[in-house]
Queue: 2 jobs
Job 1
Amino acid sequence: MSQSEKTAESSKILDAIRAKRERRSSLVGDIADLEASLIADIDAFDLNEAERLARREQLASMGAGMSDAALAFPEIVPTGTVRHLERRDAATQSEDDDGENPQRILAGSSLLGQLRHQAAVRQRELHTELAERTASNNALDQALKYMFFYLHDFVQQLNIVKPAIPRDYTAAGDAVFKDLVWQEGFADYRTQSQAAGAMVELVTLSYQLASPLAFTVERDGPAVERLRAALFDYGLQFSCKEFKNERSYVERAEFQIGGQIGVSARWKADFANGTLTLESRNLERFGSIVHAKIRQEAVDQALLDEFGRLLLALPNRFRELARR
């Protein structure tokens, strides 16, 4: 290759290098200009204004009557929320302080202050009431558990001993049950649902007494149905032989009454009032009795012992202790 050809080739290479450098400089300059433009746009972007526009557009799309974006209602800000409000110059801020500043109006509202105070007082009252009710419910639950364990052990011993019960029961005025003997008893309990706390709400005691006597009682006319209803209410075992006239009207009936007497006692928790109620059937006489409400603090060893003496028809101070 001649010298002139070499010189021409070198010139072409230098031109290509120069052109490449010029294009890269132009590209770098374009990128720098783009970055500067984006930074300027970011600096000029008004976040508060964009938020208001977005809220108006959202409310405008929420159905009839709200199609005008200018009808957007102001947002209610919860207490304690920090709002990044627009920056204003000192003159504008001074004008707002004359009565148009929403933050100043909110802070100076006597109505809101009163409502906040009432809400705080009510929350404290509810917390106190809940704590007291929980303590009362737990105390009733513990009292009934203690009672169940006592009565369960009590009837287990009596089922073995089978003592005589020195108490007379009179039915229908002329059937007197005497010489009663304990046959068998059992104690049970019931709890609330798991959702309600699974606390013990009821303790029951049931047992059977037996008399060696059996009775035959006769009744005439309307007295037949009255005696039948009474025997059902007492839970007594009986059979009835009716004597009818030619018109199939019951003129007379003969009742055969067995010597078995069922007795029950139910201790129920009244969680609303923090008391216990005793419901008994055939305990001291035929029929049902609801005893006065008993405070859970009264349920102790002394009360249960006196209740046991009451069941056995022994001298006792149960009612006296139950009124404590």
Job 2
Amino acid sequence: MTEANPPLAPWAQRETDSRGRRYPQREHPYRPIYARDRDRIIHSRAFRRLEYKTQVFVNHEGDHYRTRLTHSIEVSQIARTVCRALALNSDLAESLALGHDLGHTPFGHLGEEVLGPLLIDSGGFNHNRQTLRVVELLEQRYPDFPGLNLTWEVREGIAKHSGPADLEQMPEARDYWPGVPPPLEAQMIDLVDEIAYNHHDIEDGLESRLLDVDELTETVALFGRPYREASRRHPTEGSWMWAKEALRKVIDRLVSDLVLTTRGRLEELRLSSVEDVRRQPGWLIGLSDVTERENRELKAYLWDRLYRHPRIQQTKRHCARVLRELFQAYSTAPEEMPERFQQLATDDGLARGVCDYMAGMTDRFALQEHHRLCGGPGPDAVPSATH
């Protein structure tokens, strides 16, 4: 039987080795510092707003489709499993899992695609950079400092969420050793994030009927093998339950492969500290070659059949117009924004202040503001992708 909380491995990040917080604080007598970071993220306004931010399907499509909030919770659950298996620091990994999407705009990655060109002369837009801005500046919960005053390691993990920090896109990453790999707890988050959304995007795609289960079974080996096995073992259940069983096996295969592959690399290298992790030439968390190839096949299928589905594209075109027109409206009349964002527009430039305000919006609020300022049709008129 696996221990509930095994002792940390030599290669894990320890609280005692933290570089601390930007603004010194007395730490709590019985709450570890990374657990406090996790709790600060959970209690932030930005985290609560994830409930109404798009993952794939806009909020009005239905109650059971994933949102940025439920996605973040699923990433956290997988991260805890990996930490237990590799004896890593689960408080640190959970902080990164729950906080990794705080900087996402309304309407999913579309918002990044729209805001990026609009901010081309103001430093561009990158959701990891925006997440760092949220936790370092935009959140207001404490009288003694801006942001959440998270530990250096959590902020480093945010800066390196998608791999080595790109200083052109995120000049703030200079504060976080941009050429140095982060601890394993941070290295895992990008891949765990991918495992989570590959799994739930299949389920949401099948529920929406934008994906065809027979085509998926024939095209994607990672799904097809366990689906056919489920149909043989439970012949009376039908395709929906077979798909559920297959999805359980997909996520188990990917997580198990991540654990076994990474453990093999760590044991081969005989690492004895987190400093040894940082000395490596690249990331150590990963999948085996075979599973990585099958995972790429799954991602390619989702990209072609779900993310580029004509009905999804129709919704995206509508939402892109909403964001562009909102950006123009606030840029023309910044007094329509709350006073704090007017001040940010004065301090950091008009485009950045407008971006800060818009990036924090939920889908619903963006549509309401578009209706108020631009005469748009309102939230109920968004084209549906599901019917």
